[in-house]
Amino acid sequence: MSAIPHTPRPARGGPARAVIAARRTVEWFAQPWLVQLLLRIALAVPFWRSGILKWQGFLQLNDTAITLFTDEFQLHLPGGPYPFPAPAVFAFLSGCGEVMFPVLLVLGLGTRFAAIGLLLMTCIIELTVPDGWPVHLTWAAMALGIAAWGPGRISIDHLLGDRLPRS
Question: pTM of the predicted model, to two decimals?
């Protein structure tokens, strides 16, 4: 009969125990539902702040918003930059999206849809302000994370049945 070689198990004291305790502490703080809620709020805030400045009344854009899309903003595409086509329409859609999508995100209603909407807006913003890519990359990562893993437990979507975890 052959002997099975004995492999020593790692010690459970000292540094190993401290690492396990530290990991459990981090896991206790970084609850998925809390991370999902904070991602939704963090993505909503900059868009809401930008969007609310574009309006002077119900469905009435202020002159500055239209002027930005008419005179200031340009699409930085190959061979460009090019002016926005139909700047008043883009200003209106931008203002609507920047107010509507953040509200949906914070409420957790239509969360994945709102996240993809803000991801598409981020792509247009990147074409307009290409030097802002570090911030735009952060927004894109948050939007994709929300779309991939959902709104979390603290959301209307969760109450309506969006509970399937994603691996």
Answer: 0.79
